[in-house]
């Protein structure tokens, strides 16, 4: 099991909103981080996007509380102009996916967990969903 794992927005939302049927596998991933068996990484873009979604569904105070809890389980990788330049020169259709991909590479992370693997097809980073990762 690789110790450094980049987590996509959908996985974080699966955990924080207890989305079925994805919650259990997302919770197992985050439990591994709490137990210090793996390190989870995200970009600052994820924090902003998750806050926006949670605030709309549960209010600002609840969104901030959830993000504070999340922050105890994750590391945040930097996004700089080099990463943005790579994204803008790439063929990523979704800017967020490109930022996640290139910030993971810049941080030396070889695995991205997502439920949208088609958005990363053909890239030299291992793209897995939670179940695939847990089976390794």
Task: Throw out a few tags for this protein.
5-stranded parallel sheet, Rossmann fold, alpha/beta, 12% strand, single chain, 136 residues, globular
Structural features, described:
- The chain has 136 residues and is of the alpha/beta class.
- It has helices spanning 9-16, 23-34, 44-58, 60-71, 81-89, 95-106, 130-135; strands at 4-7, 39-42, 74-76, 111-113, 126-128.
- The protein has a 5-stranded parallel β-sheet with strand order 3-2-1-4-5, sandwiched between helices.
- The protein is globular and about 35 Å long.
At a glance:
By secondary structure, the protein is of the alpha/beta class.
Q: Helix- and strand-based class? A: alpha/beta
According to DSSP, the number of beta strands is 5
Share of helix, binned: 40-55%
Rg from Cα: 14 Å
- Tally of helical runs: 7
Average per-residue pLDDT, rounded, comes to 94
Distance between the termini: 6 Å
Major sheet characteristics: 5 strands, parallel
CATH class category label: Alpha Beta
Overall, the morphology is globular
The unreliable regions are none
Query: Beta fraction of the residues?
Result: 5-15%
- Which CATH architecture is right? 3-Layer(aba) Sandwich
Q: Any idea how many domains?
A: 1
């Amino acid at each position: 099991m690789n110790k450094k794992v980049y987590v996509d927005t959908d996985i974080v939302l699966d955990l924080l909103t207890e989305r079925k049927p994805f919650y259990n596998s997302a919770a197992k991933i985050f439990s591994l981080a709490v137990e210090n068996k793996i390190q989870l990484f995200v970009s600052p873009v994820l924090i902003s996007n998750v806050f926006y979604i949670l605030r709309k569904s549960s209010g600002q105070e609840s969104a901030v509380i959830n993000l504070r809890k999340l922050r105890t389980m994750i590391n945040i990788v930097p996004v700089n102009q080099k990463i943005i330049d790579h994204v803008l020169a790439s063929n990523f259709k979704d800017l967020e996916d490109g930022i996640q991909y290139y910030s993971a590479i810049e941080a030396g992370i070889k695995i991205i967990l997502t439920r949208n693997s088609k958005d990363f097809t053909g890239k030299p980073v291992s793209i897995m969903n939670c179940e695939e990762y847990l089976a390794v």
